[in-house]
Design goal:
- This protein has 6 helices and 13 strands.
- By secondary structure, the chain is α/β, with parallel strands linked by helices.
């Protein structure tokens, strides 16, 4: 018989960083925590992180059927937003449209990506996410080898956006998320994401913001000059002012969330 409150592994994976939290029971008692910096492999940027995760799982020796929830940061996920359409199209058609759009940017490697699009009304933009299919296969293989259950693979950006639904449902301007190796910038109009961009993070990410925002205004001149920053690893850092911009800090709230998350179909990719 499976335990009523099984062990859980909460994993965050990026090309440069691996974090694992092992907890158990109704009280979610923490049994172990691991965090490691990783040097990416040039051929497969996720390979070194996956090998590090495998070593951690061997060391933990978690009980059989332990549930693993895995979050991928944005250096292992690609995003784009498809424009609104005049009529409803099926998920299959939308995925093919997204694959063609991804291929224009990233080339033939897109053919080996698992692509998922949110299901929205034709009049709204559609957010899409893509993950290397080989990475997903390797994650399932690793879980099976360790006799644990891979419950979900979630893009960090989408998971955070859904967690911030109360704060974002009417937001205007730019939402910036600070991850371990990348900065992700999303343009919002009336609480709807219309554009996503990301770039490698520098040592002092705040010094990057003015240049990135200036470039954004050239490309999207109708954006409200408000930047909302979600940087949970930098809670103690004061936010430096940016000329002509209003700056807000975002944080997850304990208040009840909206009845429906903003991008439910992108919450789980596997």
């Amino acid at each position: 018989m499976l335990p009523l409150w099984p062990n859980q592994l909460l994993v965050t994976l990026s090309a440069t960083h691996v974090a694992v939290l092992h907890r158990t029971g109704l009280t979610k008692k923490v049994l172990a925590q691991h965090e490691h910096a990783v040097t990416p492999n040039p051929e497969h940027i996720w390979q070194a992180s996956l090998q590090t995760l495998a070593r951690i799982l061997v060391e933990l020796a978690a009980p059989r059927h332990t549930a693993m929830q895995l979050t991928l940061e944005s250096d292992l996920v690609r995003y784009l937003v498809l424009p609104p359409t005049l009529k409803h199209i099926s998920i299959t058609e939308k995925t093919a449209y997204a694959q063609a759009a991804f291929r224009e940017v990233f080339g033939a490697e897109v053919l080996n990506w698992a692509i998922q699009c949110d299901d929205v009304a034709p009049a709204k933009p559609t957010m899409c996410a893509a993950i290397d299919q080989t990475l997903l296969i390797e994650l399932h293989t690793l879980a099976e080898k360790q006799s644990i259950v891979l419950k979900s693979v979630q893009p960090y950006f989408v998971r955070a956006i859904n967690g911030l639904a109360n704060a974002l449902h009417k937001i205007e301007g730019i939402v910036a998320m600070v991850e371990h190796s990348r900065l992700v910038f999303a343009t919002f109009h009336h609480g709807i994401c219309t554009q996503i961009r990301s770039q490698a993070i520098a040592l002092d990410w705040q010094q990057q913001l003015p240049e990135i925002l200036a470039r954004t205004m050239v490309l999207e001149d109708d954006v409200a000059r408000v930047i909302s920053i979600y940087a949970p690893a930098h809670k103690a850092s004061a936010l430096a002012p940016i000329t002509h911009w209003q700056i807000k800090r975002l944080g997850l709230s304990n208040k009840q969330a909206l009845p429906q998350t903003a991008y439910p179909l992108l919450e789980v990719m596997a």
